[in-house]
Amino acid sequence: MLTPHNSQLTTHNSLPETEIAARFPDLHPALDARAAVVEANRCLNCFDAPCMSACPTHIDVPRFIKKIASGNVTGSARTILDANVLGASCARVCPVDVLCEGSCVMHGKHEQPIEIGRLQRFAMETFYDAGGKLALRRREERKQRVACIGAGPASLACAAELRQLGFQVKVIDRRALPGGLNTYGVAEYKLRVGDSLREVRMIQDLGVEFEVGEVDAEGLTELERDFDAVFLGVGLGAMHRLAHDGSASESVVDALEFIAGYKTGQRTSIGPHAKARRVVVIGAGNTAIDAACAAKRLGAGEVTILYRRQREHMSAFDFEYEHALREGVVFCWATLPKAFAAKGDAIELQCIAMTQDETGQPVPVPGSEFTIECDVVIPAIGQSPLLELLSQVRGVAMEHGRVVIQRTTGQTTNPKYFAGGDCVNGGREVVDAVSDGKRAAHGIAEWLGWRTEAQVG
Known about the structure:
disordered C terminus, 457 residues, alpha/beta, disordered N terminus, four-stranded parallel beta sheet, globular
């Protein structure tokens, strides 16, 4: 069934707001108005801008920057929102180094690239601080209803675009607060919960309905009966668990649970008043970096990341790795945890050194066992597919734990279902999920018989 329960778009943290702000200042300070204009005037306003092509949502970067330079910040924000309804959060969390800024023509001139991410953030935050709202486009109001399962970036983008096209939309999520990983899974110094929810409120103001509840097989049947189309934006499931004795200890908490805990005020074992001073994070992806840096900022004295391979194999971006080093995180390469053993209030982590075989696969080094003592272990070894729900969707094909779609429309092998985001791409960036959701919205609209004036003409 679809089992609803109450939710409000508010949150409270167990630490005072002033202490949270002190412990988690912005990773990249915001530009003030003068600095934004100066930076905007560096832009060459390229006609065939590679930065625009590098953005998965294809924001018209030269146009929004030019509007900042001319003092039209509202127009700049609206240019961003036309392409990306989550432009504010993407300005904070996108890996601009490898996307828009990484493609800036300034690199070819041996100059610093235009700070596109900070300019985008300046435009969006100035817009919101002035009370800016997302304007509802003029269009025919339609009776057809679409349900979006999941309230992460893909569903939010899909829902917002469908409302702009006149459809009636309901977003359903099992968690108390919408926003998906933007709300629960991104480090506080990158994106605050309030910033994520501010974008949700803007989408809600368009007339998108939000409901909190669990969807099971019976609930899917109800949605198929009551809605004309369904979008699957369910993301991924729980993080992979460590298959070791002792890994079920209360002192072992997965990275996403840990990040969600301190962001939304749930109790965590790491904090300014907790006894956990030695933390080990297992894994070397971007989430592992977020968890390790958060542990440092919450007061852990020693934070170590264990990774079974070498530095060059880690999946985290280079700039994330450099940031972790600046935070004081220690990396222990070619190390595999084998078992956990309680030692009083602490954990004794039994490890073994690793090397590579002739195929490049990591293998243990015989006789290299050693132990690490710590207070908390945070596994960050990737998320599993949300197979429990997806396997119940009739007629939707899966491959390697991912939903199979038509890339141009987002439609699944069951024509009534569309999908996007992490359940399709296996876990990419927020901006990729936004792009998926928007593309699926147009696929749904076409399937339901919607036509633009240009197409009708």
